[in-house]
Input
Amino acid sequence: MDYFDDTESLITVRDWLRFAVSRFNEARLFFGHGSDNAFDEAAYLILHTLNLPLDRLDPFLDASLTHGESEQVKAVIERRVKERIPAAYLTREAWLGAHRFYVDERVIVPRSFIAELLHEQLTPWIEEPDEVSSVLDLCSGSGCLAILAAQAFPDSRIDAVDLSRDALAVATRNVADYGLTDRIELIESDLFAALERRTYDVILSNPPYVNAESIAALPPEYRAEPALALGSGEDGLDATRQILAQAEAHLNPGGLLLVEIGHNRDVLEAAYPELPFTWLDTESGDQFVFMLRREDLSDHRARINLPA
Output
């Protein structure tokens, strides 16, 4: 039975919310692109489709929908169920805290732990945020971290680097939306390749870090994202190895390197036992982001070069 052929009795927001939650659970959808359960995702999609405030569901629960509104809500729920498209691609937006970013299928859906750290201006690792003059966002994607870095460090210039020209097109839109085109430079580059002798006080990176085994087991929602932004070799650390090998040359004295690596801590520490990683805690999850200073990399330069 196709439940989407029999929705005439659904009148109110409450009706459609119940219907959506039932269909999402029945289809065993995967959540992880802004919400983590069927109810929150259904509420978000319905409120967004109806152009209602995303944080005010209760006042509208018993409101009746027009025929046209019902058709719009039905369409977005049906696409989410049948095509397994992440909600962010359906609405063309993703949120990091209070910050909204445009997204589409050209970029991974933003969900970085580094965003929370930037909200705190990397306290206590940076004592004077106003003294940070240069930041690199490596593997920038939609440009969200570059934009948050520009807000966290108001006197800094930001370079946002990505290998994907498509991703940079999305980042260009977001940078313009936030009025930061004069402070953020978007650069097409394979990691540090096009940066020549540029150096920074802070380097941020949320690179691809999913290992080959996990890539093979990804649900359809994740497979809808650009493969280039997800996988990074057999153990998920190919990009991180290159970053560790080259970051020192692009950090100013005392500069910080922050890299998000997901669940790869054990593998990384086994590969680099000599490096004094500092693992940063966030409310969203602990020990998914490591920090090193330039001097940490200098002390162990000979041990972290890429193999010939």
